[in-house]
Design goal:
Elements: E1 23-25, H1 27-34, H2 38-53, E2 57-58, E3 63-67, E4 70-82, E5 88-96, E6 108-115, E7 122-127, H3 129-148, E8 156-160, H4 164-175, E9 182-186, H5 190-202, E10 208-211, H6 215-220, E11 224-227, E12 247-250, H7 258-262, E13 265-268, H8 271-274, H9 280-288, E14 294-297, H10 298-302, E15 314-317, H11 322-338
Parallel strand pairs: 1-7, 8-9, 8-11, 9-10, 11-12, 12-15, 13-14, 13-15
Antiparallel strand pairs: 2-4, 3-4, 4-5, 5-6, 6-7
Helix pairs in contact: 1-3, 1-11, 2-3, 2-11, 3-4, 3-11
């Protein structure tokens, strides 16, 4: 797809560079490349976690852009670089504007920029709300698998929060072989609850779907609990709700009070990333002054360095790593390129001669 450069020949040690190209991949195309490929994406996310754990990545802290006049809104920059067969640099730029929901727009929107690790040139811009939801759901499904090994596999799942992320997580659980006898649903929004139940019917679930008006009922009746809310601070404070030792996917990161985590076995995706920005694990660290409550990372579990106990609640709190966005985004780009379906923007880069 690249065109040869018209620049003068360089010494043999520096072969002529291709003229950089730039592709735009819209959301519909992204979804097309990812739909029905849940198993492949979970395997990709697993491989990326292993690369990250082995140090073959760069994943600096996310940067939060906040607004004094819009305190509930934020835009987050997630720069990253990942090696291995992915071998790409880039940045996810994702906004969260909760007030959008009132006007019928999704809360989050995002783009992903992929950069060539040799030249540094950006070579693609992808609509990334689908990629972000996909990597989040794939991470959750991967954690559900690994953290349920050695324990009784859950058959009753409860979704606390029923927006887009909950839908994607259910899709990835179903797409990677999970089946449930019961699916519990709880949300403060009746519209969200109704929409999620409609999605479950359309997805053809054979499970009994139960809507819980009471949050405690949902938690106590589920042996796999998925938190996918927009909570900004803990609102679930009773460790007794988890006395039946469920597996908890704490995807939204700020739902559980320190008391709940201190009574549980805790696993994260990345310690340094997760213990900041007043996440629930960060609040535990601030209260106790240490990180002794952490049992390890998901990578530790995959490598056999840590194991989830069977006699305590097990909580997975993923901060969400930029390397996962890059891996999924590069997968989409490669699939589109292989299909010959890249939408290239001709002459996107104008000054391509160093001296004009």
């Amino acid at each position: 797809m690249n065109r040869p450069s018209s620049a003068p020949a360089r010494p043999a040690a520096h072969p002529p560079a291709d003229v950089p190209t730039f592709a735009v991949i819209p959301g519909a195309q992204v979804q097309q490349m990812l739909s029905g490929r849940e198993k492949q994406i979970v395997e990709l996310v697993e491989a990326t976690y292993l690369l990250h754990g082995a140090g073959d990545s760069v994943n600096p802290p996310s940067y939060f852009l906040r607004f004094p006049d819009r305190p509930t809104a934020r835009i987050i920059a997630l720069p990253a670089s990942v090696g291995g067969s992915v071998h790409v640099d880039g940045l996810k730029w994702i906004s969260s504007f909760p007030d959008n929901v009132r006007s019928g727009l999704p809360r989050a929107s995002a783009v992903l920029i992929l950069n060539d690790p040799v030249t540094g040139y950006p070579f693609a811009c992808l609509e990334s709300s689908v990629i972000s939801a996909t990597r989040t759901a794939a991470s959750a499904a991967l954690a559900a698998d690994w953290l349920s090994r050695g324990r009784t596999r859950p058959t009753r799942v409860g979704f606390f929060g029923t927006g887009l992320i909950a839908r994607y997580i259910h899709t990835f659980l179903a797409g990677t072989g999970w089946s449930f006898d019961t699916i519990g649903v709880h949300d403060l929004s009746a519209d969200s609850t109704s929409g999620f139940c409609g999605y479950l019917r359309q997805a053809g679930t054979t499970a009994r779907v139960v809507v819980h008006d009471d949050a405690e009922d949902l938690v106590r009746s589920s042996d796999l609990v998925v938190f996918a809310t927009i909570a900004g601070e803990p609102h679930v404070t009773e460790p007794a709700w988890f006395a039946h030792n469920p597996l908890v996917l704490h995807v939204s990161l700020r739902d559980l009070a320190p008391e709940v985590l201190l009574a549980s076995a805790n696993f994260v995706d990345d310690v340094e990333h997760c213990l900041k920005a007043d996440t629930s694990p960060h609040l535990v660290e601030q209260r106790t002054g240490n990180r002794d409550f952490l049992n390890g990372t998901l990578n530790d579990v995959m490598l056999g360095r840590a194991a989830p106990p069977a006699d305590r609640p097990v909580v997975f709190s993923p901060f969400g790593l930029g390397v996962l966005d890059l891996a999924v985004g590069k997968y989409v780009y490669d699939e589109a390129a292989t299909a010959g379906d890249l939408r290239l923007i001709d002459d996107f880069f104008h000054e391509l001669r160093r001296y004009g």
